Amino acid sequence: MKTSKARRISFYIRVSTEEQASNPEGSIKNQEERLRMAVKLKNMEGHFGDIVAVYIDRAKSGKDTNRPELQKLLMAIRKRETDLVMVSELSRISRSIKDFSDIWQMMKDNGCGFQSLRENFDTTTAAGEMVLFTVANIAQFERRQISERVSANFNVRAQRGLFNGGAIPFGYKRIQDKPGYLVIDEEWAPSVHAAFKAIIREGTLASAASWLNQQHFRVKPAREGGGLRTRMGFYTVRNLGEIIRSKFYIGVKSYTQNGERKETQAVWPALIDRETFDRANEILNKNHRRHKEFMEDRYPYQLSGLVFCKKCGDRMVGKSAHGATCKVGYYEHASNTVPGAHVPGLQRTCFPIRVQAKLLEPALWNEIMNLFNEEKFAQELLNSAKRAHQHNPGSKEAEKYNHIVFNVDRQLEVLAERLSSLPQSISPTPVYKQMEKLEEKKKEAQGKLTKMQSEGFIKDEPCELQDFQRFLKAVSEILKRDDNLKIRQKVIRFLVHKINIIPDGFEVHFKVGESYVKVFLIKHDQSVSQNKKAQAVSEAFRLDLDKKNALPDSESGNASQFLGHFSSNTCQSGASGRT
């Protein structure tokens, strides 16, 4: 930590609940005032430091590091924009000993100190660092105790075969004033019976779903006991598969205890006999691709998981059709995601329904090559991303819904704890009803977050041109080492956030977020440094080592290691490219 000049100080503040976050005179203000007073007092003794930034995470748990303001703070530390992080107490920054250990090591590597007002740490001594980790361990212990009490309560109920809450499966309904017990819904039970018979007779989910809809069998639209939204009311590949796979219908309660999947006899009656259930699932198992032999002529879809329909927002998956001389690969709406795909009279409204892979994949690769080779294209891309970020940053609204989700989780934990200590003479029904209401509130917020995500709001600020050019150069160097199909797929996922299909072409959204690019470059620089060290060692011992025992080629060996650091889900921002 720097001592020759005043420190650049960053405050980190966190509160756990929505109530705390919404109170203008609450914990957030108190934490900041205490931190500012501490700096003021230290500056009276000498120029201790200047406050350069305040990072506030509202209604965020300390169980992990998935917090937007914390991530901004960590990026500032990596960029060496701060010399000292101050918090009111250690648990504000993390309740996980592993996470805190990683954060503390990163701070030390970047010349950044850490101070907590409550614990009064002195991290410059071995004893101070030991106390630091001891307190972090206690914070983690408190969080895990709460989690274990809730889990224990649910596991005890599961072992008894009781229904633990949530959406009640189609074909059942609850027994009033008898929590955890269900009864067969006689109005909808025939539809469930017909579903199992259909899969045995038709042989596939798609044909069975079509037959059920043709025979006017329906799925109950309303969800009892929870659920984000009402069901579509008819059979699809997805909901039919979920029904056939569920052991709920044979009166078996499945649950997880200590990471192990367990089963017990449920308190509700079976709707389907075991023989019928086994026959239906045997058919599904035979149909599943992972149980089939590998097919050499299968088309290698390079863009799996990245292609979406711009109109409906659904993912477009790789499928093949028989052409005149060979199989033809397509990206098209999956039949299990297109509403009405198996309902007579309901037509798909999206256009195009599918696009040929041999047209889309080369066109996308051409865009990537242009991005590597045309500086003007990169500049236009960043300008477009910055305009989009200014008009629709999305972070405030997303943060509000994230607060709701986290706050509901905390309330559910409290209710579950109360439930476990409730005397037998008191009915738990009011508690269950309150938990159901909270689940509805949580799922509504999650649904809005999902919708915002599908509409492509941008959370991370676009990076600067110089960093983006370094990023592109680093990715292109990986391609130069070995240009084959697997490497191209990796390169595509480094660069592309998503591809939207439109009637006259496609839109490609590239990854240009500052956090994503910065972290990528940090990892790349570390990789290059390790490469140079390995080459120096190899050169020093080259004359003494037998060829069989020599160090592996550092360039090609490190390339595969470097590729493992990132995957498509590290995207923080997308910018639309040309079509």
Explain this structure to me?
The chain is of the alpha/beta class. 48% of the residues lie in helices and 14% in strands. It has 17 helices and 15 strands. The strands form five sheets. A four-stranded parallel beta sheet has the order 2-1-3-4, with helices on both faces. Strands 9-13-14-15 form a four-stranded mixed beta sheet. Helix 16 packs antiparallel against helix 17. It is flat. It starts with 6 loop residues before the first strand and ends with a strand.
Task: Summarize the model shown.
By secondary structure, this protein is an alpha/beta fold. It has helices at residues 18-22, 27-45, 68-78, 97-109, 126-159, 189-202, 205-214, 237-245, 274-287, 357-373, 375-391, 395-420, 429-454, 465-481, 485-495, 514-540, 554-563; strands at 7-14, 49-57, 84-87, 113-116, 172-174, 182-184, 252-257, 260-265, 307-309, 316-322, 327-333, 354-356, 496-502, 505-511, 574-576.
Descriptive tags:
579 residues, Rossmann fold, 4 domains, 14% strand
Helix content: 40-55%
State the low-pLDDT regions, or none: 543-574
Number of strands: 15
- Report the total helices: 17
Arithmetic mean pLDDT = 75
User: How much of the polypeptide forms β-strand, as a percent range?
Assistant: 5-15%
- Rg, please? 28 Å
Backbone shape: flat
Largest beta sheet: what is the strand line-up? Answer: 2-1-3-4
- The termini sit apart by 50 Å
Number of domains: 4
The biggest beta sheet, please? Answer: 4 strands, parallel
SS-based structural class? alpha/beta
